[in-house]
Amino acid sequence: MSTPSVTLGSGPHGSDTPSARASTLDRRRIKRSEAARRRSASRLKLWIGAISALVVIIPILLAQLLPLPDPNAQDLGNRLEAPFSAGHLFGTDQLGRDLLSRVLHGGQISLTIGILAVIVSGLIGVVLGSIAGFYGKWVDVVISRLLEAQMSLPLLMMLLLVVALFGPSIPVITFVIAIAQWPEVARLTRSLVLVEREKPYVAAARTLGLHRMLILLRHVVPNVFKQASLVILLLLAQAVLLESALSFLGAGPQRPFATWGRIISDGQDYVTTAWWMVTVPGIFIVLLVIGVNLLGDGLRDRPRRTKGLVALLSKGKNR
Amino acid sequence: MTVPFADHQVSRRSLLRWGAAAGAFVAVTSLTACAGPTGLPGKGTLTLALNRSLVSLDNKLNQFDAAVTVQRAVRQGLTEIGPDITPRLVLADRFELTAPTQWTVHLRPGIRYSDGTPVTVEDVATALEMYSKVQGGFVASFFPEFPTVGKIDDSTFTLDTKKPLPVLDALMANILITPAAANKPAELQGGVGSGPFLVTKFNRGAGTYSLRRNENYWGEAAGVDRVEVQFLAEESSRVIALRSGAVDVIDSITPDSATQLQGLPNITIQRASALRMNQIFFNFRKPAGHPLANAKVREALTMAVDGHALVHDVLVGSVIQADGVVPPSTKGYVKTGEYVYDPAEARRRLASLGATGLTLKIIWETGEFASDASIMEALAEMFGQVGVKTTLQEFEAGGDISTWRQGRGGEWDLLGNGFGGPTGQAINVLQGMYAGTAEKERTRDTYQGYVQPAVASLIAQASSEPDEKARDAIVVKAQQAAWDTWPCVWQFVPKSILARRTRVQDLALSDSNSYPLTDVHLEG
User: Which residue positions does the secretion signal occupy (chain B) (predicted)?
Assistant: First the structure.
């Protein structure tokens, strides 16, 4: 049985090849294929996610450079000014503070906590998950039971308890969010490592006499890290949401630090008279969370090996 | 002709269409159901939403304003403070000063608890004993000394003190009477009282109480069948609950919430002046040599506070800046001074007193008073203008701020706190806040460590002065002496604001920010 060759429409290369014959796999069909649809969907997700996240992240990163008032500078005579009022693009809060400045500076705190928390939780998760997956036996049992036990606890209640015990400082909040999130990463890493450790290159490394820890660190972890890092990215959105939830419930960093959760919490009392106090930070949270999630989804769904198709297409074009 | 079966086959597309239509129908009907208010109070049920958790129906340890309304509906005292801020008789029908150190009291005939047992002289004696045994109690702080009960007959007794206590009739309004066997030197949760309502269910943790009309009540029966008390910490939640009709009354609301509710159909706003002072009180437990132990430093710090901006901008004119140490509505109040805003002078004075580079820690409990967090943040900004750094620590309701207040939780410099004057007498407010002694301080029974022997001596004199004119003169001196120690960096007198559904009738909000539940009626 011969393999059908590919013709890509009536292009110059296709028509010039005398041996070419009509194929059912034309450009239109390729475009309609499931794989192509998935690829374009993932590209769309990547674009929307990147734009949504960057719309929030870039102003936050540039907050110190932008000509904004101090986020804590009060102007009691100009409290609850509506958006687009003089000098206040997003209006002012109940103490006359510039809402845009507070949201951007608050975003720095929320993002810092989120990023630090996912780094710590990612580190813990990857280390413990890979150890559990690679070593198996009692190590796996202990780590797996530990993460299952933690996942069975109500997350927010646990966080509130820890913050109540140790006080609501930024390091404490970062640490509790990190501790809350490591099981997700550990579980995925463990399952990836379980697959990897059965592969021939691991057996080859063992045969060559490499220490098990060295095999894990040098060969296995780099192979699973890319997939695990996608989950870590998705956890960033969750970490920002958790930090906002804690601040909203009064367990965030102490005043006068602006955090998104606190700005929304303070704005609750003015929801019918100063809607912007809850809406503006709410939009920032929504954009960031949706953006990061779409980015993670897009990266996850992106076709990993396009070499085959590309080679096939070039082959067809060159004929 | 028989139609071929194949023509009736349901295609996948039409199945999906029908499925989508059914889903939309279910979603719309569910949303419609959700859109209407749920859990509305019953026809004869009055639902109150308090801003602070009612941890007890007893007032031995705590007595925030709204709690008084509910506590007095279940338990009563020999007297109560009436709308004119004078004591009036409740369980007693006679309460007379028969000697400089002796009051003679007669219990009203026929008064009974909700279980039908009579109120006895022993119950009064036990109540006084239990209130005196509670350490750090709110009510106990008003008593220079607790009277002893001398029984004359089954319904007559004397209240004897070592020194004259001419305002005992007002003070006794805070002693709630419970059957002697059920009373303890601690806050009582449920139990039996002589009031117009009885407790049918309660959950201390959630702060919810269910009350039912006491059919054995010795007085006129209450106007509503049932009362449900809820705790909703978030003001916005209380406002929404009132608007949706889920609750009937919300109290102690902020002026901003009042603005939101003003003019809405079926909602009425009520205002009253208050027998309360809200303060940013200094920590008087600082060692000698600490800048805050110096009254001149405290005075300089007061100059950093823009009281006018706080009153008019932050609190939208709903309060008045204090010009004395007791609420203006109290009997015996006198103006003792004014807070002056002069940041340049504050900075100069602090520098000349060597108090530069100060860092102040301000603590308060959420919901201590309306707009508390905004006031604290505004203060932090104002102190920053004169070079004083601040850190803020907000305690969630039910947290351990009481331990901090007693100086056992951690170091702090300023406390946001409200202090009520439940007797309506200036002398009692002074007694509660400024009569601290070294002996009381050993058990941390002083007000934020305030021990000023000169002030305490004047208050002690006034408390035991039987002649009203002479007493009033000493009270004036005591107020001035307390003011001159600059105990607060700023203080204000709030106005009580309450919002109710219009179906709630005959709600008489008094200056004590409470109202008699028995008088309330429900329309329709």
Answer: 1-35
Structure tokens, A252: 């965030």
Residue identified by tokens 């007379």 is B96
With contacts defined as CB-CB under 8 Å, which chain A residues touch B254?
269
Q: Do residues A212 and A130 make contact, with C-beta atoms less than 8 angstroms apart?
A: no
Residue A189, both tokens? 């890493």
Full-model pTM: 0.78
Facing A77 at nearest CB: one of B235, B239, B313: B313
Contact B381 A95 (CB under 8 A): yes
The nearest alpha carbon in chain A to B362 belongs to: A255
- The chain B residue lying nearest A256, using CA atoms, is B377
Burial class (CB in 10 A: 0-12, 13-18, 19+), B28: exposed
Chain A residues inside the 8 Å CB shell of B313: 76-77, 79, 96
Cβ contact, residue pair A250, B259, below 8 Å: no
CA-nearest of B306, B322, B476 to B384 is B306
Residue B149 at interface with chain A, using a CB cutoff of 8 Å: no
Residue B138: both structure tokens together: 């709110």
Residues 311-350 of B with CB under 8 A from A: 313-314
Give the chain A residue whose CA is nearest to the CA of B398: A164
B254 close contact with A: CB closer than 8 A = yes
Distance CA B453, CA B311 (A): 33
From B257, B380, B393, residue closest to A269, measured CB to CB: B257
ipTM of the complex model: 0.73
| Cis, peptide link before residue A168, omega less than 30° from 0 | no
Alpha-carbon distance A202 to A170, whole Å?
42
